[in-house]
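Worked Example 4.2. Consider the chain below.
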Amino acid sequence: MALVSGHAARTGRPLHRLDIVDTNPFISFALHELLSERGAPIMPGLAGLRWETLAERWDFGRDLVLVQAHLHDVWPLAVKLRALARLGCRTLVIGDTAHEAMVARAIESGAVRVIHPESSLAELADSVEQAARGRSGWDDAQLALVARHPAPHLSDRRLQICCLYAARLDFTTASIARLLGLSDHTVRSHIAAGRRIYRDAGRAVSDRAGLREALLDDGWFEPGLASQ
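Applying the procedure from the previous section yields the following structure tokens:
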């Protein structure tokens, strides 16, 4: 947890820092203004429209992260959430709470809450404050989604490559290899392994369309992945 000693000495409360990655350029300012008005012990961290902003400037000084689910980049949401969980962050996701499989994958990957994009700013601030106090946003019904929407486990790199391959028809194994700085052989091996894992789970993924349908149904990625 990030602490600012002066604030802690005056109030006895730790001062959390909140990073925000969202394509709405106003969300960070508006949210921090409201949190400040409430006297919440939360200060602004990094804010940007792209995941790369956080990845490139990360300094290990934050414990709260708010990230939009549907960023157009080369990292599936689950890969981002896993990385942040390994760093000890409490991550909140702005995403469609009606997409049960996506919520299930977010729970598995370490998110503490999924907040619908149409939620009010006050509701968003409430969720951030509760996360700062260490509270998860999951209720029993949401936790049950993991059992209701099971999915084969894929490693971070395998998940990234399989999702990129499934997301766009113009992505060849060679173009994915160039994009990620890997060999074509490595990319093909990960795709083959991903298909094998799904086949072992009784899913038909012999072609790209089948793999795409399986990954979408399981909530691993959204159609907008890598669309830019």
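The CA atoms of residues 184 and 204 lie 24 Å apart. The chain has two domains: 5-148, 156-217. Compare this with Example 4.1 before moving on.
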